[in-house]
Structure to design on (224 residues):
């Protein structure tokens, strides 16, 4: 079945560590997105990518980095510069602008 | 950027009731989507509806783009309809597209 796979589901990070969240899709979608969700809030855009080897900052990119070396993969690194990284992270993809988004099941990141 | 307001923020209904959720947005859009987030965090795309009316079973949606609002109707509610409903919008013009901007959602609880 086609879909988006995010891993791990739960992730614990120590202060000062970088961690990488995985996002893989087999939908042959061109565009991929990373969102952050805080409790009781909507989703906020971190980074997005329309094609391989190209990506753009979203509204809250500070303290995060991404890469897009393959069409299927769009990993997100939460760096030590991100002061409040505890949140629910969601990855999405879309075929073209006129189609809807498909979301992964998310990764819950907690700083310990 | 575009502002998205959803109402009501919370809604508690008995099983079998009907409901209407509203999404107002501050500027013209050419992409509008409704999502349902279940209690485990999974986001499911319900409708891609930048204008017009669509129906899918007990759910239907209407977007009046000229008046900058969209409505999601849920009829004969079931307990499985519980969760958070998000409206998300985007206005893109040439070049690459930004990601969707989300409202804060309507938290719906259906009681048996």
């Amino acid at each position: 079945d086609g879909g988006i796979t995010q891993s791990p589901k739960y992730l614990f990070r120590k202060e000062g560590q970088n961690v990488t969240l995985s996002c893989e899709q087999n939908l042959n979608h061109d565009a991929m997105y990373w969102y952050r969700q805080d409790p009781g809030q909507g989703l906020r855009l971190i980074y997005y990518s329309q094609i391989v080897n190209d990506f753009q900052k979203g509204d809250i990119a500070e303290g995060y980095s991404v890469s897009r070396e393959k069409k299927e993969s769009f990993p997100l690194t939460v760096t030590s510069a991100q002061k409040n990284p505890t949140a629910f992270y969601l990855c999405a993809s879309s075929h073209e602008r006129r189609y809807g988004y498909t979301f992964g099941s998310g990764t819950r990141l907690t700083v310990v | 950027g575009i502002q998205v307001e959803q109402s009501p923020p919370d809604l508690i209904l008995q099983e079998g009731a009907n409901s209407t959720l509203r999404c107002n947005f501050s500027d013209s859009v050419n992409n509008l989507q409704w999502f349902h987030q279940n209690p485990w965090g999974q986001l499911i795309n319900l409708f891609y509806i930048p204008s017009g009316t669509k129906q899918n079973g007990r759910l239907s949606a209407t977007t009046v783009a000229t008046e900058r609002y969209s409505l999601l109707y849920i009829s004969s509610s079931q307990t499985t309809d519980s969760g958070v409903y998000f409206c998300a919008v985007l206005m893109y013009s040439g070049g690459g597209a930004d990601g969707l901007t989300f409202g804060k959602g309507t938290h719906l609880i259906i009681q048996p």
